[in-house]
Write a structure and sequence with these properties.
binds zinc ion
Length: 102
């Protein structure tokens, strides 16, 4: 019973991701808002791969609560914050690189 519940939830999430990917494809064509669609597409690929729910940066399991809120998440909260910070700052800051070995 438990497993079945988890399965239907996973399926629901997959559908959400598909919608997100399809929906945002329109924005990609018009040249804006590419990132969420790209993440959704990536997440779908990771479901097939069996690596869905694992942070691409640190390899830790992404908390299910986070995936529920943001099913396209490919990073845990810490790595996502780091990533967003890096892409906002956009200047090769060695402080962040040093953290990765942990
Ligand atoms: Zn991480």
């Amino acid at each position: 019973m438990r497993r079945r519940y988890a399965n239907s939830r996973a399926k629901q999430r997959e559908e959400m991701l598909r919608e997100l990917a399809a929906d945002e494809a329109i924005y990609v064509i018009s040249g804006k808002g590419h990132s969420r669609a790209a993440e959704a597409i990536e997440a779908l690929r990771r479901i097939e791969d069996g690596t869905y729910g694992i942070c691409v940066d640190c390899g830790m399991t992404i908390p299910p609560a986070r995936l529920q809120v943001k099913p396209e998440a490919t990073r845990c909260i810490a790595c996502q914050t780091d990533y967003e910070h890096r892409s906002t700052v956009q200047r090769g800051d060695s402080n962040h690189v040093a953290r990765r070995s942990a």
